[in-house]
């Protein structure tokens, strides 16, 4: 069974830059996995940030960007703000209609 | 702006059934693959199922295969999830989600607010 991996937690200073990653246990992430990134605060529905590796969803500020870094998908937040403190989830398409979410990264801004 | 409104959640006993609905609006529903994603209390997101635009292709997570059934009524812009043989571990908030294209591989780009399903005696 494929496991999608994310850092459980990360910390960034206000104004700083942070890169969260998304990999999987049995291979390298590529654009054919259509990596996407979602932001979620407690009690709220997820908000789409990035889809298809690097396409920013409508209304998402350009300080959020997606890419492939090495063998993982990456979400970079430039100029972190206090309200970026959230849980971040990635999802990968694994073929045959199957999607697998990562366990999420809890981002702290302090 | 895309709107997805789930309904049908509630308390059900183990072994019971429940049918979730998702009313979609402000986009061409019949042109998009649709999915259900769930989140157990205090846990992460879990993909549950995806359905092609015409309803002919269905995909399920192993955890629900054989118990859950996804369907849609394009004339009413509504997505469904029939959940049978429910277990305690199915307790979660269930989100309806729109994908970017007609392909099952496409990304999720819009989410509903979710409906809570609690399986307990």
Overview features:
heterodimer; A: about 110 residues; four-stranded antiparallel sheet; 11 strands; about 50% strand; globular; B: about 120 residues; seven-stranded mixed sheet
Provide structural commentary:
The complex is a heterodimer of chains A (110) and B (121). Chain A is mostly beta strands. Chain A has no helices and eleven strands. In chain A, the strands form two sheets. In chain A, strands 2, 4, 5, 6, 9, 10 and 11 form a seven-stranded mixed beta sheet that branches. In chain A, strands 1-3-8-7 form a four-stranded antiparallel beta sheet, with no helix packed on it. In chain A, β4 (36-40) and β5 (47-51) form a beta hairpin. The radius of gyration of chain A is 13 Å and the shape is globular. Chain B contains no helices and eleven strands. The model of chain B has no long low-confidence stretch (mean pLDDT 97). In chain B, strands 2, 4, 5, 6, 9, 10 and 11 form a seven-stranded mixed beta sheet that branches. Chain B is globular. Chain B has strands at 3-7, 10-12, 18-25, 34-39, 45-51, 58-60, 68-73, 78-83, 92-99, 108-111, 115-119. Chain B has 121 residues and is mostly beta strands. The chains are: A mainly beta (110), B mainly beta (121). The A-B interface holds A 1, 34, 36, 38, 40, 45-48, 51-52, 57, 87, 89, 91, 93, 96-104 and B 35, 37, 44-47, 50, 57-59, 61-62, 95, 100, 104-114.
């Amino acid at each position: 069974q494929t496991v999608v991996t994310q850092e459980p937690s990360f910390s960034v200073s206000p104004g700083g830059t942070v890169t969260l990653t998304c990999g999987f246990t049995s291979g390298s992430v590529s654009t054919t996995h259509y990596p996407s990134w979602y932001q979620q605060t407690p009690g709220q529905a997820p908000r789409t940030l990035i889809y298809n590796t690097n396409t920013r969803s409508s209304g998402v500020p350009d300080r959020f960007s997606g890419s492939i870094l090495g063998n993982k998908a990456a979400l970079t937040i430039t100029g972190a703000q206090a309200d970026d403190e959230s849980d971040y989830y990635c999802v990968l398409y694994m073929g045959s209609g199957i999607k697998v979410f990562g366990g999420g990264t809890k981002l702290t801004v302090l | 702006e895309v709107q997805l409104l789930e309904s049908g959640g509630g308390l059900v006993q183990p072994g019971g059934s429940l049918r979730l609905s998702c009313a979609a609006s402000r986009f061409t529903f019949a042109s998009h693959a649709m999915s259900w994603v769930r989140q157990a209390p205090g846990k992460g997101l879990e993909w549950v199922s995806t359905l092609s635009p015409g309803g002919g292709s269905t995909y399920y997570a192993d955890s629900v295969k054989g118990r859950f059934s996804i369907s849609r009524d394009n004339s009413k812009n509504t997505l469904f999830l029939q959940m049978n043989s429910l277990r305690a571990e199915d307790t979660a908030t269930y989100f309806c989600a729109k994908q970017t294209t007609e392909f099952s591989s496409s990304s999720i780009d819009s989410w509903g607010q979710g409906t809570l399903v609690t399986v307990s005696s």
